[in-house]
Structures are given as structure tokens and as C-alpha cells.
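Appendix B, Record 12. Input sequence as logged:
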Amino acid sequence: MTTRLGTRLIVLILGDILIVFGGFLLAMFLRMGIEGGTDQILTNFGLPKIIFATLICLSTLYVYDLYDFTVINSRKELVLRIMQALGITWVLLAVLFYFFPILLVGRGIAAYSVLIILTFLLSFRIGIHYILGHPEFGEKILIVGDGSVLADTTHAVSNRRDAGHRIVGFVASDHLGANGNNGNGTGNGIPRFGTIDELESIVDGKGIDRIVIGTRERRGAFPAEALLRLRLAGVVNIEESTSFFERVTGKVHLDNLLPSWLIFSIRPRDTRVRTVFREALHRGLAAVGLIATFPAALLTALIIKLESRGPIFYRQKRVGKNGKVFDVIKFRSMMVNAESDGTPVWAAKDDDRVTGFGKFTRRTRLDEIPQFWNIIKGEMSFVGPRPERPYFVEQLSEDIPYYQYRHLVAPGLTGWAQIKYPYGSSVEDARQKLQYDLYYIKNQSLTLDMIIIFETVKTVMFGRGGQ
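Logged structural output:
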């Protein structure tokens, strides 16, 4: 999910709140009658209890990714997730009502409410799912440019149906047709409407809402005057392909990236107060995490010691903020001398160097618990790009442009790349993750940090991404 609450997401959340809250309220009146329901509200804290139950339900919908349409590929999956989420919600409520009877709204209301909420929530969500995927709905986009810009923008939009964008066509310079050919063909299944010289008439005739500029040739190919007239007239929104790609995908496109774009679009500079507050918050969270996970850490250490010979903890050199090297601390999950020849090796899926219990600690992220100490010492933050080994940093800096920029901020226990991209073990994976890391560095904020932490909790709960 993106870092901004778009209109569609707000509508989705408000719709769910009305359905869930209204469902409990309607169930109460159906079960207890008008007089009984009113008495429950006025004398027995009925509304606060319903609000509490509603928050539990919305939290479960969030955990099941029902506010992120990028993970929902079909109506069948949507229905399945909703039913699972509501099932878990009512189990949680049943447990809470048993141990804390004061939270109980009223006997029999849960049975009524589950049927009402399930019916209305399924209807509402299926309707939203249909609307977001319908080609006639959404903002009409015209791309100025072709080739890789057209392909990348089209791919980004197709993976974010929930964003409400619809690419209706593209225009290119006079001497280029689709994919560099003359003529009025199509590019990537997108029709070509003509040339850049016809831009204003195309915008007017096709009812375009947004123009995405992707031309790399500035001389003779950039329709400055036409775009200026359209912009000043307030006829259409205009956006560079780099900014559009970032906003839709949540990552920075390395191939289209210019240093000037980063310079002029970077977040406001950090003040001393803001920096101190952020570091205190992250260290505080790490201290809480260290205390909360202490029993699990003790048990993990004991099993590691019993399972295989060698130390409980594993220290490894990593590159931190401004290129400073530090020792990251983890629970050992590999056999001793896993890199006996001294040459660092990418961790791979089903790595035979990993111990039996090590596979479990990696999948559940238990091996990361000691890194809370790295955060408390100030070598890491709770959120940031994951620290890499010096050997790989040197290699990747030669192969991937802008790779060193990820060291402008402190590395993190978790990060934007970790929740958006699966575990990587190659140069190409590192390149993809860098695009997310640059997005984080450019948009770093407390709100984004909180989103990453919440998403990480979901990832750990469902055992995704560990290796």
C-alpha cells in the first residue's frame, strides 16, 4: 500500500466503518427490540462497546490485506479473505467477551451481526472491486513518449488498479511510431493517438484528465508551449513519468532517474529536534521489543545451544550510515564455518548451510531479536534500508547506479523494501530493493515509519519473506 490515504482508500475505510458499526447496531435492535436496544445504549455503554468491536473487525480486515488491492487478484480471493477475516474477528470477540464480560454488547447479538455484516460487506467490497477494475472508470491518462517509458508506466498502472488510473493512449514525436516504428500502431496494447504536435486537440477530443511526460529528447520533442497552455488553462493535470511511477509503485525508477530530480524533490531537511525525537522513538521501541521478546530470546538461545556446536550469537560486519562499518548481532542460524573459504556468499532459498532450527528462526524473524541492541546503541534504526555486508556493497556500488545513496540514512531492522519486495539474493534483487530504499529516503517520515512497522507485524504474523 502507498504512503498516502487516497480518496478510494478513504471511501473503502469509511464504508467498512458504516457497515460494521451499523451491522452491530442493527443486530442489537433486531435481537433486543427498539426499547431494549435503546436501553442498552443509554444505560449499559452500548455505543462504546460497539465501537470497540468495530475497531477489532477493522484491524482484522487490515491484517488480511483487505485495504491493499494489489494483493487481491480475483473476486474469489476477495470473498475468501473477507470470510477468513470475519471468522477470526468473531473468534477474537468471543474470547474477549468470555474473559471480559463487561465488553459484551448483549447475548445473541454476535450471531445476528455476523450475518448482517458479512452480507453487506461482501456486497460493498465486490461492488468496489468491480468499479476499480472497470475500464470505463478512473482518471484517463495520456502518455507523451514511447518505448520503455510507455512499457514501464503501463505495467505500473496495471498492477495498481485500485489507484484509479486508466491509460487510454499515447503520443510520440513525429518520426517515431509505436516501438520506434512509423505509423499509427499501438504500443504494449495501448493505442497511439498521433504525434506531439496534435497534443492539444487529442486532450480535448479524448477527454484526458492527466498527461504523463516520458520524453527523454528535450529538443524538438518536448511540447513545452502546448503543455504550458494546457496547464495554465487548468484543463489537465501534468506529471513527469518519474514522479508518476514513484507515486503509483512506491519506488523510484532507476532507469529514468536524474540526479536533479532527487535534488529538487527530496524531503525537507531534518531539524535537530526532529532527528532527536526520531532517534529517541526508535530506541524506545527497540527497548520495548527487547523486553517483550526476552522469554522467546531465552528459549531460542537454549535451542541453538542444544542443536549444534558453536556460539549462540553471530556477529557480521555491515555498512551503516555514511558508510560506517559496524557489527550486526543475530542469533546464529547457520552451521559453524558456513563460509569456510572466507568469501561472502549470497543467502539462498533452501540454503543447506542453515540449521534445522535456523530455518524456523529465519522464517519467524526470531534471529533478528539481538538487533534491538544495535538500535539501542545507535548503530541502526528501527526502520531504514537493511544493512549490507561491505563485500557486497563494494560489488553492488559498481553494478548499480546510486547504490551508495542508501547509506545516507541509518540502516533499519525493517524497511520499505522489506515489506514491498521478497527476499533477494542477486544483483537484480538488490537493484529492485534499491528503488524502494530510495523512495524511503526521499519520503522518510514518522507516518511512513509507522506504516512500515504495522506492515512488518503482518509479515511476521504470516511468516512471509524470511529466508
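Confidence is low (pLDDT under 50) at residues 1-5, 175-185.
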